[in-house]
From TrEMBL:
Species of provenance: Stichopus japonicus
PANTHER family: MACROGLOBULIN / COMPLEMENT, PREGNANCY ZONE PROTEIN-LIKE PROTEIN
Transmembrane region(s): none
Pfam families, A to Z: MG3, MG4
Domain Macroglobulin: 39-112, 165-241
Protein name per Swiss-Prot or TrEMBL: Putative alpha-2-macroglobulin
Highest taxon above the source species: Eukaryota
InterPro entries assigned: A2M/Complement_sys (IPR050473), Ig-like_fold (IPR013783), MG3 (IPR041555), MG4 (IPR040839)
């Protein structure tokens, strides 16, 4: 015999809480099913506000989203009411939506001009007061967000480089440009200048660069070969097309290095990773004074290789160079260093020395594999 029966039992107003058991006897066979009676607790939910990370004074629109989410992870269908204000100093603007739909979220946007004129914005904060009401139960929850900054500063600049320059040789540095939310300021135009700030004589440099997708610029200029210039001011400037936005600048002062022999040496930057069992090309740039025009230049090196915290030193003579007679002697040499080590972990430090007459000049460069 087959079939189905639908039965019901009305519980009292205050039933006994706990496990109940239904007993069914059919054709002499007994079947049981257990269920639980407990107090009903309305599901709890949170209100999530996703504001912009920052608002620039010239942005056309401001966008933010609001979501309702049960504590067990499912979306809450409901209505949303939002009051938007600037630091609670002005009359708030009201926005609302009657039904978020099944996903429990809604994105609001409004013109940035509603926040005031550009000239009146002085590092203020956007205040979002949100009330989210669950449609099924009518229960409402409120949430406030007030840490989104409205700024007239489009980006920040940081200039990274040595604190000194070697006369007559390239000074290399890096520029880092970031948006107010610390993300890279990609493909923006920057002006770089270098001027004499201390000493006698004249020196000036100016060049325009564009940041890459990581907000970086690798730049260089040839420092003056003038013993009377003792300090340079390096400045990076970003100018926004809108004239009301003040320029952004980053400055760095660099001192002239001193050498008893009047000579200077620099190793061009190496790549951070290079293959084992192949020659490492090291390009050296140097200057020597007029008095050493007939000198035979002798390059030597100390190569220290750190393998698993153990240091090994290698010494060698690279080359000798003779120079003709002219007032400022400058040049470069490409040196080949051959070494073989376990490629598991290598940190390479090159100490390069150029011997001239009674003095010597040296430079250090460290790179890791």
């Amino acid at each position: 015999m087959e079939g189905m029966v639908d039965l019901a039992m009305q519980l009292s107003g205050e039933p006994v809480l706990g496990n109940w058991t239904i007993h069914v006897i059919l054709d002499g066979k007994r079947t049981t099913q257990t269920f639980e009676i407990d107090e009903y607790v309305l599901p709890k939910f949170d209100v999530l506000i996703t504001p912009p990370s920052y608002i620039f004074a010239l942005d056309e629109t401001v966008e933010f989203s609001v979501c309702g989410l049960y504590t067990y992870g499912q979306p809450v269908r409901g209505s949303i009411a939002v009051n938007v204000s600037l630091g609670r100093t002005e009359i708030p603007q009201a926005f609302s939506v009657e039904d978020t739909g099944d996903d429990g979220c809604h994105t609001f946007d409004f013109p940035r001009r509603h926040l005031g004129r550009v000239n009146s914005i002085q590092s203020r904060y956007l205040i979002l007061d949100v009330e989210f009401t669950e449609i099924v139960t009518g229960i409402a929850r409120t949430e406030t967000h007030g840490s989104t900054k409205i700024t007239k500063i489009p980006l920040t600049l940081d200039t990274v480089g040595r604190n000194g320059f070697k006369p007559g040789l390239p000074y290399r540095f890096q520029i880092l440009a970031k948006l107010p939310n610390s993300r890279p300021a990609s493909f923006v135009s920057l002006t770089v200048t270098a001027l004499k700030s201390k000493g006698m004589g004249h020196f000036s440099f100016e060049e325009t660069y564009t940041t890459d997708q990581d907000g970086r610029v690798n730049a260089e200029f040839r420092a003056p070969f003038d013993p009377y210039i003792t300090e340079l001011k390096l400045e990076v400037t970003y100018r926004h097309p809108y004239s009301h936005i003040p320029p952004v600048r980053s400055s760095k002062y660099i001192d002239a290095w001193y050498s008893p022999s009047g000579s200077f040496l620099v190793i061009r930057p190496l790549t951070s990773v290079y293959p084992v069992d192949e020659n490492l090309d090291v390009e050296v740039e140097f200057t020597i004074p007029e008095s050493d025009a007939d000198t035979i230049l002798e390059f030597s090196y100390i190569l220290s290789v750190i393998v698993l915290a153990m240091t090994k030193l290698f010494y060698g003579m690279l080359c000798k160079v003779s120079w003709p007679d002219f007032s400022i002697l400058a040049g470069s040499e490409r040196l080949h260093l051959a070494f073989e080590e376990d490629p598991a972990r290598i940190e390479l430090s090159v100490q390069l020395t150029l011997h001239i007459l009674q003095g010597r000049i040296q430079d250090f460069l460290t790179r890791g594999r």
